[in-house]
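We modelled the chain as a single entity of 110 amino acids. Its sequence is:
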Amino acid sequence: KSGDLVEIELEIDSKNDYEYLIFEDMKPAGFEPVDVRSGYTGNELGAYVEFRDNRVVFLVRALARGKHSVSYRMRAEIPGRFSALPTKASAMYAPELKGNSDEIKLQVVD
């Protein structure tokens, strides 16, 4: 519903230990981040979070093997049907290491 807060959670399943990763979550149309200050937010991964115009970026120095998650909140602003593009993951210093999530469909009602 328009005006509602939505918790966005990125679930990460890492099969190995990695260093210096970037997770880019594209902002769906019709939504705006609640927090707009970039910085360290005390998330599970110790990730630095950047809130940009069209995406939220998590910069992770070290990712241990296993399941992890990071999250942030957005507010539904505009009624309609929207697509959340796939989240992209990549290694800063190993360009051959990359991955992505699936696209998600969202609907905001008035």
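As a brief sanity check on the tokenised model: Residues 5-108 form a domain with the Immunoglobulin-like fold (CATH 2.60.40.690). DSSP finds no helices and eleven strands in the chain.
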